[in-house]
Specification:
Elements lengths: L2 H31 L1 H11 L1 E6 L6 E2 L5 E13 L6 H15 L3 H8 L6 E7 L1 H8 L6 E10 L7 H4 L1 E2 L5 E2 L1 H5 L1 H5 L3 E6 L16 E4 L3 H17 L4 E8 L4 E8 L18 H4 L8 H11 L8 E4 L2 E4 L2 E4 L7 E4 H7 L2 H11 L1 H10 L30 H6 L8 H9 L6 E3 L4 E6 L2 E4 L4 E4 L3 H17 L12 E11 L2 E15 L6 E8 L11 H15 L5 H6 L4 H4 L2
Parallel strand pairs: 2-9
Antiparallel strand pairs: 1-8, 2-3, 3-4, 3-5, 6-7, 9-17, 10-11, 10-22, 12-15, 13-14, 16-19, 17-18, 20-21, 21-22
Length: about 575
């Protein structure tokens, strides 16, 4: 071996030594110094995040008819690279009428130099089905969860709506968001076939069974709409409740809205006026004032006062609604003739401490706690408040200077139909969560007045309907109730050309099963509740007693129903 060959041999040896050093160094670097990082990266490449999303719970009425369910809209996308020029032209022509978009706009998207182009963010199932029938490669249809309402607008304010992010707004959809939505579950899994796989199980949304009766709700909504147009009112509310347990059987407002198309509606319509909008109740408040006076021992049904037609309290002069001065009047006549001076008089006899104690017992100025989103608390200024003046004890007595929601007013009077017990209103009767069923238990908010007082007031309210409000009379049934005609304050003054007409009544008076409040905003046929809300009450009750199978008084008495209460 000559020197030249030896040099070449040494060069080769040196080359291999250097290569071995480099390779060994890299192996040490990768496996020792950076081994942990590369191991983590390798495991990360083999891991995928698996997410299980639950279905939103269904909402049923009390007879298990579906009021809210689940479906899907679809997102339409396309992969232009999978389409030939000829296909793009043909697809654009086919998609234009389905998506209701210009053909040139769709064609430009199909020919874009992008891996994926969104053609439509959200389309209904029928549109997606029409696109699927075209059977073109490259078009992608991705489902997007969507809440549906099979009954249309029925009970819109009770149900509320669900936005495109799956978040409930208003009604039970908002109040029970956590229960209805359930809880998604996720897990990071290895794609290695040698790795044991764990199940990923989401907590499904709970189903709700409402106290709402679908048939009653439909009847009430139809009746309200007819009444609004008949009396030229701007809006209105009807509540139908069971005074024995606080069940809301129907809650209707006009105008209503479509929960499915909530995004197209006037945002003001999404607010539930029955629980969120306050008004001065007017003369229906005299029921509460009289009950407080009776229960406190201030008066009896036969007590009298002298009514000159005017009373001044705290510098404010109160007149009777008809400007009459009837003279010596007993308490039953006071209620049946709806005398403002009389209500103010007995409130002053009680005094602020006693009177406002009773108003708090009746839950004025506080939320009822109903399980619906965005309930207002009403407005009650108490003695000692910077907003209270001495005149309020007089004006509050006949429903001015105090603000309530329709539900708050109905719930308070409901105590008079339920032996003095004020029940908490509610709209959800059961929550079905997996194998568990949570049943609502009736909740007593307060003993507003004694049972004896409630029975006496009940009889006086029957007389009030018979004497004052014959327009609320229903043949075969004894009705207890009271009308209200409230002025509307704006900017510190009462409007001279607008009122709120209302009537609240319960039946059968000897064994109340229904309490109904009707409120009409700014009726134009008459300014008086006795001429608008009261007759609307009568015509509604005539249909409700048939639908709900409530027998007339004679039939019930023959069967012995109601005798227990009548004897007390």
């Amino acid at each position: 071996m000559n020197s030249s060959q030896q040099r070449r041999l040494w060069l080769v040896i040196i080359f291999f030594i250097l290569a071995m050093v480099i390779i060994t160094g890299r192996l040490v670097l990768f496996q020792v110094l950076e081994g942990a990082r590369w191991k983590e990266l390798g495991e990360e490449i083999q891991r995928v995040n698996v997410v299980a999303r639950p279905d939103r719970g269904l909402i049923y009425d009390r007879s298990m008819a579906v009021l809210a369910g689940n479906s899907a809209d679809y997102q339409i996308g396309v992969s232009p690279s999978l389409l030939s020029g000829e296909d793009a032209d043909e697809i654009a022509t086919a998609l234009a009428p389905i998506l209701q978009k210009p053909r040139f706009e769709i064609l430009a998207a199909l020919q874009a130099d992008e891996p994926y182009v969104l053609l439509a963010g959200r389309v209904p199932p029928d549109v997606a089905e029409a696109i699927r029938d075209l059977d073109y490669d490259g078009i992608q249809l991705d489902p997007l969860p969507r809440r549906i309402y099979p009954q249309g607008k029925l009970a819109c304010h009770v149900l509320g709506y669900v936005d495109f992010d799956g978040v409930g707004g208003g009604g039970v959809e908002g109040y029970y968001q956590t229960e209805l939505a359930g809880e998604a579950a996720s897990d990071v899994r290895s794609i290695s076939p040698l790795t044991p796989q764990r199940s990923v199980i989401a907590r499904e949304g709970s189903d709700l069974v409402l106290t709402i009766n679908r048939s009653v709700q439909y009847l009430v909504e139809q009746h309200l709409e007819r009444t609004i147009f008949e009396h030229g009112a701007r809006s209105g509310t009807i509540l139908v409740m069971d005074p024995r347990n606080g069940d809301v059987l129907a809650m209707a407002n006009y105008p209503c809205y479509s929960p499915y198309h909530f995004y197209e509606e006037n945002p003001e319509l999404l607010t539930n006026p029955a629980i969120s909008r306050q008004y001065e109740p007017g003369s229906v408040m005299k029921l509460v004032t009289m009950a407080a006076a009776l229960d406190s021992g201030t008066v009896t049904p036969t007590s009298t006062y002298y009514d000159s037609g005017v009373i001044e309290v705290g510098g404010h002069r109160t007149y009777n609604w008809d400007r009459s001065g009837p003279g010596t009047i007993d308490m039953t006549t006071l209620l049946s003739r709806s005398l403002n001076v009389g209500a103010a008089t007995i409130a002053t006899w009680m005094g602020p401490e006693t009177y406002y104690m009773y108003l708090e017992r009746f839950n004025f100025g506080r939320r009822t706690g109903i399980d619906l989103m965005a309930e207002a608390s009403g407005t009650l200024h108490l003695p000692g408040s910077p907003y209270w003046t001495e005149s309020f004890i007089a004006t509050n007595a006949y429903g001015q200077g105090i603000a309530v929601t329709p539900l708050q007013m109905a719930a308070s009077v409901m105590a008079l139909a339920n032996d003095g017990q004020l029940m908490q209103p509610h709209v959800v009767q059961e929550i079905h969560s997996g194998d568990r069923i949570l049943v609502h238990e009736p909740t007593v908010l307060s003993q507003a007045v004694s049972r004896e007082t409630a029975n006496v007031l009940n009889a006086m309210a029957v007389t009030a309907v018979q004497r004052e409000t014959q327009t609320a009379h229903v043949e075969g049934y004894t009705i207890a109730g009271k009308t209200g005609t409230a002025e509307i304050p704006e900017n510190g003054v009462y409007l001279s050309d607008a009122t709120i007409g209302s009537f609240i009544g319960w039946l059968p008076a000897d064994d109340p099963q229904l309490l109904i409040l009707i409120k009409l905003d700014r009726p134009t046929s008459s300014q008086w509740g006795s001429m608008t809300a009261a007759p609307a009450f009568a015509t509604l009750v005539e249909e409700l007693v048939v639908l709900m199978n409530i027998p007339p008084d004679v039939v019930r008495m023959e069967a012995g129903i109601g005798e227990a209460r009548s004897s007390n």
